[in-house]
Amino acid sequence: MADKPMECNKCKRDGCVNYKEMKDGVVQSFFMCKSCPLLKAKLHEAEPLHVHNPSIFQDETSNCPICGQSKEEFTITLTLGCDTCAETFKDILSEEVRSLDLIPQNLQNKDLGAGFHFGNIPKAHAFQGFSKTMETLHLALNEAVQSEHFEEAADIRDQIQKYLENPNAGTK
Amino acid sequence: MQAPNKPPVTLTAVLKEFSPWVNCLNPSYPLNRYTLHRNIAGFTFSEKISKAEAVDVCKKLVTALFSLFPTGEFFPSKDITDQEHHLILEHLYLAGRDAIHPEGGIFIDLKNNILAIIHLEDHLSLFFHETTRGSDEILQKITYIDEQLQKTIPFAYSELFGYLTTSAVYLGTGLCKEAIIHAPALNLLGGSISEDSKVLIHGLHAEKETLNNLIIITNKYCLGVSEKNIINQVDEVADKVFQAELDAKKTLLEDPEKKFINDLSKKFGAALFSKELQLHEALSIASAIDLGISLDFVESKRKTFYFDLFFDVRRAHLESYNPDRSLSVNQKRAQFFKEKLNDIKLTT
């Protein structure tokens, strides 16, 4: 068994690139997946990311107001520093979950407004988000039927039924 | 008269007890592991958290866990030695980069088979191990515990992205299912595993090669799928791989490959007479013996040999359970392996 982990240090996907760099005489080794934003940033060190995409990093006031994470840091690491980061960087995050293949194919072109999540929800959110959740579920159901993923469609149909019967219980 | 003091419970001793895979029902498909990632709403997540906030989060979670599992034990990070830390990483096959925050810790309830780490990457990582097939029951258990915890602790949640986790990979349900399959016969016969777009198939530490015949099947998506779907998708592929392994064993049983019998005898001899064994050698021998047991080429009272010592032959385990400093790790491994072979004999 390999003692050394071979996974992307950031997103935990298959780490196919072993990136080594020397800093202050110490060699540091990183495993990264081919689509890792950290790898892209390392490879373009001479030309920082904002040179390629100036619109993302110009506005420093749009850092997360709670944990202070900057857009640049978020784009590179794709890690949330607090729950407010999800709202602050929702546009970047929405793009990244699509481009990094973190959502199923049938949701790739889904409208952002409806939300990506349709698993269990906290009871406190059940009534608040009732119509939004129903919209999400119906959209997902239509897409599953259109793409002929009938097993998935049946599961979503069951979720809608359960949710209608008891919105407080969340979707399952 | 004063009652004698209860001996202190050590993390090493508790972890030794926490080995659900030893009682697995099937040596080829010994274990399913579920990990639930959660963060408390309104607090900075573990990677950026301040000391005061980290203490507060830990206190809230430990209180909630004890109210649910009063028979549990909590081991704060500050009391965990480096060796014990390595032991945890090995025992839960976490990647080497994962470190528990100094204000976090590990909660273990042996009675309920629950293990939780506070401040690993997220505020709470709950681990559930399942050695029998019963996905509906385990999903009910996970949902129940999640709901009970949320009665006192609001978890970070967004209507857009679901439950919020530090890594974008676990956004949504925050649920990861890993099916662990030992498939030596399938590998021996050169069988291939068909790709499936909904799951990831990899080795122990997410490496592409499945070393020592160990295959891990994990859900690819946490977002845009329900918990039930996640479990079904992994189960579907795991069942296929497991069936392929059973078929391969059947083929080998009907027409045993002489090469395998020769290979098994050599490995058995090496295990018996080696003075030093490296990890990959030990696991390769254990895997062959395990297959030998399944094919009745090896006589053993144990159901699984491979998973019996899968974790115990690793560095931190050997160092923890055998503190003899005069022996190297490889010597300890060879010694340990030899002891395990006591009740095993070749029948071919």
Write up what this structure looks like.
The complex is a heterodimer of chains A (172) and B (348). Chain A contains 9 helices and 2 strands, in the order E-E-H-H-H-H-H-H-H-H-H. Chain A is mostly helical. In chain A, strands 1-2 form a two-stranded antiparallel sheet. Chain A is elongated, with a radius of gyration of 20 Å. Chain B is α+β, with helices and mostly antiparallel strands. Chain B is built from 11 helices and 12 strands. In chain B, the strands form 3 sheets. An 8-stranded antiparallel sheet of chain B has the order 2-3-4-5-1-8-10-9, sandwiched between helices. Chain B has a two-stranded antiparallel sheet with strand order 6-7. Chains A and B meet through helix 5, helix 6, helix 7, helix 8 and helix 9 of A and helix 4, strand 6, strand 7, helix 6 and helix 8 of B.
Helices and strands in order, then pairings?
The complex is a heterodimer of chains A (172) and B (348).
Chain A: E1 17-23, E2 26-32, H1 37-43, H2 49-52, H3 54-57, H4 71-77, H5 83-88, H6 90-99, H7 123-126, H8 130-146, H9 150-165
Antiparallel strand pairs in A: 1-2
Helix pairs in contact in A: 8-9
Chain B: H1 11-17, E1 31-38, H2 51-68, E2 73-76, H3 82-91, E3 105-109, E4 114-118, E5 124-130, H4 135-152, E6 157-158, E7 162-163, E8 175-182, H5 184-188, E9 199-202, E10 214-219, H6 227-254, H7 258-273, H8 279-294, E11 298-299, H9 306-309, H10 315-321, H11 329-340, E12 345-346
Antiparallel strand pairs in B: 1-5, 1-8, 2-3, 3-4, 4-5, 6-7, 8-10, 9-10, 11-12
Helix pairs in contact in B: 2-4, 3-10, 7-8
